[in-house]
Amino acid sequence: MLNSKIENNVKIERFDMAVNFYAVINIDGNPNLICYDFNPAWNSWYPFYDDVNKTPIIKKSKAKTYGELIKECEENIKIQIDEKINLAKERFKELIGNSDFEIEKLENFIVYEIKYSKTANLYTIYKLYNFVITNIDDKDILFRPKKLKYKLFNLNNFIKENLVSNAVYIVEHEDLKKICL
What we know:
6 strands
């Protein structure tokens, strides 16, 4: 994607960075990815995620490829990603009732995606930082998130129905089964 030319009909207006935490839980011998319904209007299930920022794209960009555009955006943002990861961890702890947990970077730690939002009527480039939860004090707390519905995706019989596309990519490219809680 990074070396692909930006098509004339695609007007990218936003650059967003997010941190994703994947939790895989063993239920009856099957690894299941737990996802949440953060906004029913989106009609998608997400692993826990936290937006790092939403930044308008540089209006006078001369970028010809997505990689060049992302580089321009990152140079203008100057985000301390470690701070944002720690903030995402704190927000996740609030969601699950302050249970302690540990994370590891996934092999596909950074993934880029371009998405069109019908509700906002614009394209966004996403830079996603992906982690898996490797240990948690109380895994049952993942089933009681504050004010959110959850859904389990069985990784042995994976059906990607309504799972957000970047999570589908991770499930298809990572061996999440080996990291069951």
